[in-house]
UniProtKB/TrEMBL annotation:
The keyword Transmembrane applies. It holds the Pfam family O-FucT. The chain crosses the membrane at residues 21-40. Keywords: Carbohydrate metabolism, Fucose metabolism, Glycosyltransferase, Membrane, Transferase, Transmembrane, Transmembrane helix. This is O-fucosyltransferase family protein. One of its GO terms (molecular function) is glycosyltransferase activity. Belongs to the glycosyltransferase GT106 family. One of its GO terms (biological process) is fucose metabolic process. The lineage of its organism: Eukaryota, Viridiplantae, Streptophyta, Embryophyta, Tracheophyta. It comes from Quercus rubra.
Length: 575
């Protein structure tokens, strides 16, 4: 017990010595922190902090009274100043379309065999059928056969009863190609009987050798054959003269009928009366296309339920990963995203926009942000009367033809997708002078749209302009042979070497080594890869069918039976 008392007394004495030491150290620390607080600046309140942040923003500041939005991501009403002309393509004057046959391309009389007839049945909507018609002429030339005027698709999906002569000028088609392929309006009779004609289908991207091996033996035996579901049934890469024949068909021989041309030109004229320049936007945002793409746009359970129900109609579609599709640039831009992209590229709220689209998923609520950015918003239904459109409104392909004309004649063509109409018009606008054609670089823009709430407008706009290099319709953007030939007809585009030489020999504004026509925009466009699945193109809808009446109860989604072949599903939906 005595030992315990001595140990307790020892610890007590040590504690009495430590307490004064702790007190002394604490006092020194308090004095030190008080001195620091005296030297520190007064803290900023929230308004002062916001003012400081605005002072550190980039040079092109956005006026709060001249912007759309309330967060720090304020979208200006005016397009930001650019060092380029937003209505023309740089260096386009150095290039022109060239599709004349070479001297080595034999005349039609020398190669066409008697009693050898090729007929084709197209598939899909207007633009998909256009590719089939173009390739059918080339296929007939490969087979040294006489082509029967193509039969248009009147059954699946669009149920348009129009025949070839009600959409295209059939006499122009025959006469323009008379030196290349013999074309007749119908099969001749064998006495009083029609020539019997077997049907067959060739693989997609069928080469010259493929046609010789698969189709020619049938022609030699039966003298006539019909190729069905004929779209994208010809190889992308062919002999130069055959590629040029493709261009002669697509860009010269295929002309719309006079009633369609006259109405289309009226629409163009009315847009020109409103403004010197206008943008045409091909907006693909229909429910079936969104369902097919497997993308998700933040509509919650309602969107998943509605689009999921549509998607289940196609039993061969695999389960998709929406985030992955978006990251890989496979999802079409929303109307709002298209508007933000255009504003970032320099197009202000005073710009007039013509919109070619089917029924937009979400209706006016989905379109509202785009209309807020561009109030001068038009369609054929708003600039033409019902009476004027009445001859066309019951025929989806004729309505699509009107949109095609207005988009083709626009100063700038914009698309939020990579469907058939977008591809056909991109190639056509390249051929006829490289008119600006803006295709969104969806893979790169995805990251910007995802993080825009944490960015200033200036940073966002700079990112858009950087990512859109190579997607603006300039010459040499896409490497020759890359993508679909209908989208990139490089064989049919020639360089004006004399004009270029004259330009190069002029005074050098930027010093030695600068080339005004250098190919600094040549890119590997992974969105145009040959093996990319095509989105379903519904630009040929009957636009008078209400959304709730037509698209969700199966009226427009009756595809005449299921298919087990993914490629055929693409064909069925690709226009």
């Amino acid at each position: 017990m005595a030992q315990f008392q001595r140990r307790r007394h020892h610890y007590y004495n040590r504690l009495r010595l430590v307490i004064p030491l702790i007190s002394a150290v604490s006092g020194v620390l308090l004095i030190f922190f008080a001195f620091l607080s005296f030297l520190a600046p007064t803290p900023l309140d929230s308004d002062q902090l916001r003012h400081r942040l605005l002072q550190h923003s980039t040079t092109n500041k956005v006026d709060e009274n001249d912007a759309v939005g309330v967060s720090k991501f304020r979208v200006p009403k005016r397009g930001m100043k650019s060092n380029r002309d937003i209505w023309t393509s740089k260096n386009s004057k150095f290039y022109h379309g060239c599709s004349n046959a070479s001297n080595k391309f034999p005349k039609v009389e020398a190669v066409t065999h008697p009693n050898r007839y090729l007929a084709i049945a197209t598939s899909g909507g207007l633009n998909q059928q256009r590719t089939g018609i173009t390739d059918a002429v080339v296929a007939a030339r490969i087979l040294n056969a006489t082509l029967v005027i193509p039969k248009l698709d009147q059954k699946s999906f669009w149920k348009d009863s129009s025949n070839f002569s009600e959409i295209f000028d059939v006499d122009q088609f025959i006469s323009y190609l008379s030196k290349d392929v013999k074309i007749i309006k119908q099969l001749p009779r064998n006495g009083k009987k029609k020539i019997s004609m077997p049907t067959m289908r060739v693989p997609r991207k069928c080469s010259e050798r493929c046609y010789h091996n698969r189709v020619l033996p049938v022609l030699l035996k039966r003298h006539a054959v019909q190729l069905t579901k004929f779209d994208y049934r010809l190889a992308n890469k062919l002999d130069t003269d055959l590629q040029k024949l493709r261009c002669r068909v697509n860009y010269h021989a295929l002309k719309f009928t006079d009633p369609i041309l006259e109405m289309g030109e009226k629409l163009v004229h009315r847009m020109r009366l409103k403004s010197k320049h206008y943008i045409a936007l091909h907006l693909r945002f229909e429910p079936d296309m969104l369902a097919f793409s497997g993308c998700y746009y933040g509509g919650g359970e309602k969107e998943k339920k509605v689009l999921g129900a549509i998607r289940r109609r196609w039993k061969t579609l695999h389960i998709s990963n929406p985030d992955k599709e978006r990251r890989h640039g496979k999802c079409p831009l929303t109307p709002e995203e298209v508007g933000l992209m255009l504003r970032a590229l320099g197009y202000g709220s005073d710009v007039h926009i013509y919109v070619a689209s089917g029924e937009v998923y979400g209706g006016e609520e989905t379109l509202a942000p785009l209309k807020a950015l561009f109030p001068n918003f038009y369609s054929k239904e708003t600039i033409a009367t019902k009476e004027e459109l009445e001859p066309f409104s019951s025929f989806s392909s004729r309505m699509a033809a009107l949109d095609f004309i207005v988009c083709d004649e626009s100063d700038v063509f914009v698309t939020n997708n990579n469907g058939n109409m977008a591809k056909i018009l991109a190639g056509r606008r390249r051929y006829f002078g490289h008119k600006p054609t803006i295709r969104p670089n969806a893979k790169k823009l995805y990251r910007l749209f995802l993080s825009k709430s944490n960015m200033t407008w200036e940073a966002f706009a700079a990112g858009v302009r950087t990512n859109q290099r190579g997607f603006m319709g300039e010459p040499n953007e896409v490497r020759p042979g890359r993508g679909e030939f209908h989208e990139n007809p490089s064989t049919c585009i020639c360089e004006d070497s004399q004009a270029k030489a004259k330009k190069d020999s002029g005074p050098r504004k930027y010093g030695k080594g600068y080339d005004a026509t250098r190919k600094d925009d040549v890119i590997i466009d992974d969105q145009n890869a040959d093996d990319e699945p095509e989105w379903p193109d519904t630009d040929d809808y009957d636009l008078n069918v209400p959304l709730e009446k037509g698209l969700f109860n199966g009226t427009l989604l009756d595809y005449d039976g299921a298919t087990s072949d993914y490629g055929e599903l693409e064909e069925m939906l690709s226009d």
